[in-house]
Amino acid sequence: MKWPPYIMKLRFDNGKHRFGFWIPLFLIGPIVLVFLLAIFLIMLVFALLEFIFSWRWDWLRWVVVGIPAIHRVLCSLSGVHVDVDAPDVKVYIAIR
Amino acid sequence: MGENQKRILQMLAEGKITVEEASRLLSLIGVESWETKDSVKGTKSDAKYLYIQVKPKEGQESQKNARVNVRVPVSLIRAGMKLKALIPPQAADDINKGLKDKGIAFDIKNLKDEDVEQLVDALRNTEIYVNSAEAEIIVRAE
């Protein structure tokens, strides 16, 4: 099983403003998980109603395929590293 | 049983080929299928990250360009490909039309996981190097 990332490091510098901080994803992760689960259940009800009354499964596809796919993408973010060093702005993002 | 194996056995049953020829063809197919499986397995375990680097060249004009260093996990590309199922049909048609306008005859709806594996495998074995007047661009997977 692939676990979601636990920390995100962010640095920004455009000459005028400069900041850098660590975002503890391991604290935000459970909130996002609960949020995704809530959306999953709410959308599932509406998707089933849509399927029963109109025989269309657009929303059902979103619920069944979309939300697990989004979860997989979030879990695969570990290891993303972006480092942009331009003359006017510097951005550094690392997800672990 | 694969389509090719069925075809060979049918040719044998119809008497179009001999037993020896059928055996030789079947063994060739067996070797090919094992090689394909091995290459897919190798890709999954080997290539972990896709690296994209842009290095501006020295000079007055190129000083405006940014130095970019991006590392993307291959697993993220694979997971992202699953999102293609969510592309609305109308949007997929628009994407296909846009690709066709650029001279790429490709149907985004037919994109399979194997295609992504082949792409990643190709990147693992190839380093894309663009040397322009302003910058060097390197794309590779390791």
Secondary structure topology:
The complex is a heterodimer of chains A (96) and B (142).
Chain A: E1 7-13, E2 18-24, H1 25-54, H2 58-75, E3 81-85, E4 90-95
Antiparallel strand pairs in A: 1-2, 1-4, 3-4
Helix pairs in contact in A: 1-2
Chain B: H1 3-13, H2 19-46, E1 49-56, E2 67-73, H3 74-81, H4 89-101, H5 113-125, E3 128-131, E4 135-141
Antiparallel strand pairs in B: 1-2, 1-4, 3-4
Description:
The complex is a heterodimer of chains A (96) and B (142). Chain A is α+β, with helices and mostly antiparallel strands. Chain A has two helices and four strands; from the N terminus they run ββααββ. In chain A, α1 packs antiparallel against α2. Chain B has 142 residues and is α+β, with helices and mostly antiparallel strands. Helices cover 51% and strands 18% of the residues of chain B. In chain B, β3 and β4 form a beta hairpin. Chain B is elongated, with a radius of gyration of 22 Å. Chains A and B meet through α2 and β3 of A and β2 and α3 of B.
